[in-house]
Amino acid sequence: MASPFPAVVFDLDGTLVLTGTNRPAPGAVELVETLHARDVPLAVATSAPVALARRVLAGLGVLACFTEVVGRGADGVYAGKDAVVGEALLGLGITTAEPGTPMLGDSPADLDAAVAHGLVPVGVAWGGSRPDVLRAAGARAVLGHPDELWSLRAS
Ligand SMILES: [Mg+2]
């Protein structure tokens, strides 16, 4: 079976977990597990410290599904979403994203970073930004539930 996406990049807070919590967004764990089971390379690009992000993902039971987790460095420096998404892609071995590679996020900064790296900017409606704000920021789609990502696959 062909891989449904070349890769997928996720924001963490407000996207994989409910905003400001360690609780999974409904359907997010299942989406990650299904993508991983279908051999889709996965990365997290977050403004949270990497160690914290890894703990949160471990708490959800999905840390092993991710090839790369990039965020604020141990020195506390956050280089910005654009930079962490770039680093996440490099961690996946991607220098030029294939068409149809989505990035899911709940903020306009996520979408901007996605566009900057040639990713499909996909907003999520369960995070910190309203769908109309995400659409205005360039979201190709705004998901009401993680399962809706499947409707964006190429084939
Ligand atoms: Mg977020």
Summarize the structure.
By secondary structure, the protein is an alpha/beta fold. The protein has helices spanning 28-37, 50-60, 81-91, 108-116, 131-136; strands spanning 8-10, 42-49, 68-72, 102-105, 120-124, 141-143.
Describe this structure in words.
GO terms for molecular function: hydrolase activity. This is HAD family hydrolase. InterPro entries: HAD-like_hydrolase_sf, HAD-like_sf, HAD_sf. Keywords: Hydrolase. It comes from Actinomycetospora chibensis. Helix 3 crosses helix 4 (108-116). The termini are close together. The protein is of the alpha/beta class. The protein has helices spanning 28-37, 50-60, 81-91, 108-116, 131-136; strands at residues 8-10, 42-49, 68-72, 102-105, 120-124, 141-143. Strands 3-2-1-4-5-6 form a 6-stranded parallel β-sheet. The protein has one domain: 3-Layer(aba) Sandwich (Rossmann fold). The protein binds magnesium ion (MG). Magnesium ion is lined by residues 11, 13-15, 105-107, 127.
The count of DSSP E runs of length 2 or more, i.e. the number of strands, is 6
Cα(first) to Cα(last) distance is 11 Å
In this entry the ligands are:
magnesium ion
Catalogue the unreliable spans. none
Q: Please state the average pLDDT score.
A: 96
Proportion of helical residues: 25-40%
Q: What's the shape?
A: globular
CATH uppermost class: Alpha Beta
**What is the CATH homologous superfamily assignment?**
HAD superfamily/HAD-like
Radius of gyration equals 14 Å
* Count of folded domains: 1
Class per helix and strand makeup: alpha/beta
Give the strand order of the largest sheet, numbering strands 1, 2, ... along the chain. Answer: 3-2-1-4-5-6
Largest sheet: 6 strands, parallel
N-to-C SSE string, H for helix and E for strand = EHEHEHEHEHE
CATH architecture name: 3-Layer(aba) Sandwich
Number of helical stretches of at least 4 residues: 5
- CATH topology, by name, is Rossmann fold
